[in-house]
Amino acid sequence: MNKPIRKAVLPVAGLGTRFLPATKAVPKEMLTIVDRPIIQYVVDEARAAGIEHIVFVTGRNKHVIEDHFDMAYELEDTLRARNKAAALELLEKHRPQPGSTSFTRQQAPLGLGHAIWCSRDIIGDEPFAILLPDVIIKSKVSCLRQMVDLYEKTGGNIIAVEEVPDDQTHQYGIVELAEQINDKSSRISNMVEKPAPGTAPSNLMITGRYILQPEIFDLLSSQGQGAGGEIQLTDSMISLMSNQSFSSLKFEGRSYDCGNKPGFLSANIAFGMDDPALAQELVPFMQEMLQHPVAAE
Ligand code: UTP
């Protein structure tokens, strides 16, 4: 039987330079999509997949993330005194159990691979999930849940993938596929970070959700700098592929890369449209914007 996936790592130590000046004092992960910080969507996805413990790899100026997942005594007491039961329930629903989170600091933003390596002692010798908190996924079933379901059948390492137009493959990490497992999944034979236009081995991009075996940590500990002078997770995954299986999963749902402005704004619209009261106001506004962009100012 495959060892269960109990722990997840959320690397949140990046600088978020694409959102300056917003991210000068507020971590990118705390920017809001409708009424929840980005990071809350990702934690909710992990918990919906049965994750018991979440490891946040943080950096300087990120302590507000720790506060967000803690009990806010004064606020909750005030809400209780004012009989605001719905607001209290909302806070309780989103708060992890005491002892089910860990925070460790990366100290220097040396790359995603280095951030993941910083979680090695807390993860220990068991398979684990990684969720890049820039990416939120709108789906009926949590994307990580879909991955865990596949993992329970195949074991090994699993990477969530999504189709992108051929002319955009050079912007992403792209997988090369070998034999098919089923209509949503195949063995992965290779991965390429940002392939030159026209050279991509497929149109399936790596979405930011991984299930990995703990042997990745040994590889990360000696991984040299890769693309952009950073320690890259992809480079160690390629090494691990020579003696362990990697499978892709075309999950059901759609990802929004909130690490860039178009993705962040699209996510606000897409998740806002889920609320019928908001949709009623948003739809006429968007129609007006499309017809008369200047008049809508
Ligand atoms: P990104 O490169 O997209 O995030 O890293 P960034 O560096 O915060 O953003 P920009 O480019 O400056 O705007 C992808 C994920 O990896 C984490 C980031 O926090 C993000 O969730 N990361 C990246 C780390 O935790 N540490 C690093 O050294 C690099």
TrEMBL record:
EC number: 2.7.7.9
Transmembrane segments: none
Highest taxon, organism lineage: Bacteria
Single Gene Ontology MF annotation: UTP:glucose-1-phosphate uridylyltransferase activity
Keywords: Nucleotidyltransferase, Transferase
Catalytic activity: alpha-D-glucose 1-phosphate + UTP + H(+) = UDP-alpha-D-glucose + diphosphate
Enzyme class: transferase
Domain Nucleotidyl transferase: 8-268
Biological process, per Gene Ontology: UDP-alpha-D-glucose metabolic process
The keyword Transferase is annotated on this UniProt entry: yes
The family this protein is said to belong to: Belongs to the UDPGP type 2 family.
Protein name as catalogued: UTP--glucose-1-phosphate uridylyltransferase
